[in-house]
Request: fold
Amino acid sequence: TTVRDIFYQLLKDAKSTKDALEQAFYAAALNVYSEGISNINLKGMGTTLSVLVINDEQALIGHIGDTRIY
Reply:
């Protein structure tokens, strides 16, 4: 499951696009963290994620890690 898939699923019931994006980021971070603690070979792993969502007249930018959208 990708962050995109999670985002679109959450968007159906979310109060706002921002809420769905925040929840999708949280789910992604939790998934990476869970994999890192459950598999010794993945201990300490992290992720980088940058997202731009354009919805009607609104643009939302989100990021995890050290990559940014400028």
In short: The first helix runs from residue 3 to 11. The first strand starts at residue 49 and ends at 55. The beta strands are 49-55, 58-64. The chain has a mean pLDDT of 90.
